[in-house]
């Protein structure tokens, strides 16, 4: 790299997933000098790291793309829910189409950053010790880039192959004919389990909480059908995303489940169920995630559907408990294809960790409290992430008050607009804390936040402003709003990454903006329309503006 070019960067973008490439392209287009530093060996973010067997997206192909530059015109997905390999091809396509590669530095992890108040620039240090000094730091690190590996006794002694799902070897691992163990039944675990069950010699699943999984509804997408869709409705679908609660092409039903007759409700449930995807969750009556009584109706429907597919009563009891493990939809339901059928296979064992916890990992496998040693060749840790905040707090980013972000958020997260945080000037983050992250289609959330950030930087430049930082008061107010919005619903009744409850010792609090995309967009717009209300803006004396 040309050293001087890197020293005078207007913006350093961290991460080359959807958000990173959006920012690179849009900022470059407006004449900013920008680079992406990406820790992985390729583009794609989540789809670079998550290459475990069966990894695929849970958003329909039509909404899982960037709307900018009419990229969709020359791209076709082959399946309704594309897998990681096809998603990587999509990133490759975008990279070539927009000529992004020349400004992306791969295999480069950021380890620390400190803002220099004399120059209004960040000093950002990479793992190899290189330091760059961008005006703006844009963290496009996603919500799931810090894997969580439970602290099992003996984990390092295991003699087979053991990998976290998000650190699955890029070379792949042969699971056919092997004794496979999977710990965790979140979205990743469910995908890995349904892929392993049919091919492994034996599959042992270690489950702590039953996943209230719903049918994916996968199918091939014909090229002709897709071309027709592009001519007719795809542009509308892409715009529609930003008008719905979760950034999907369908929306929550704005009425109570009890406003309709039980018959109408049942027929509607059946209809949503048959559509596959998240219709039954993100297209539900508005009170399903708000009112326990409405939630009970949805859970009962879900349970009947699951029970029909499981043969053994013991399996039924563990996978579809009579008492719901948490209100339906307050924890991310997985989307599955043959998940429940896997448990009808004779080569599959399901351990309920509440009844029979893991005691230790041995050289041969996993030992449970009942004394059994489950022998394995491959152990997959589908144990999730220090989600939402971990992607940012794993970088040593020092505030202007000397407090690292890890410590600042250690007692609870506070942000302004889910995009910035006090004492960290000229730093933006996307698809992270206090944004619609957990309840949104990634590209939708990213386009809302990204367009705001790009406009903000353009305006600062035209007004000669070199520093922007939210006030503590604005941050406090926004953080109260986040808590208020979450408190009206049942979200806190589930232990999950939505609230940090999945990580031992992490403060349990709402980590997401739960008011939906349109509400969130409105807040961003109001802020910008009122001269970046809640921020203090300043200009470095004598500094040449970017
Ligand atoms: P998740 O959804 O956080 O799932 C992690 C799973 O691992 C979940 O079933 C956990 O059980 C289980 N887990 C975590 N720690 C342990 C320990 N110590 N012992 C046993 N089991 C454990 O992560 P995913 O990767 O599946 O999905 C993350 C998101 O990516 C997903 O929501 C989508 O948005 C895409 P628990 O449920 O906490 O009892």
From TrEMBL:
Q: What domain of life is recorded for the organism? A: Eukaryota
Alphabetical keyword list: FAD, Flavoprotein, Monooxygenase, NADP, Oxidoreductase
The GO terms describing molecular function are: flavin adenine dinucleotide binding; N,N-dimethylaniline monooxygenase activity; NADP binding
| Pfam families for this protein | FMO-like (PF00743)
Report if keyword Membrane is assigned. Answer: no
Cofactor(s) recorded in Swiss-Prot or TrEMBL: FAD
Q: Please state which protein family the record places this protein in.
A: Belongs to the FAD-binding monooxygenase family.
**Name the UniProt record assigns to this protein:** FAD dependent oxidoreductase
- The record lists the organism as Collybia nuda
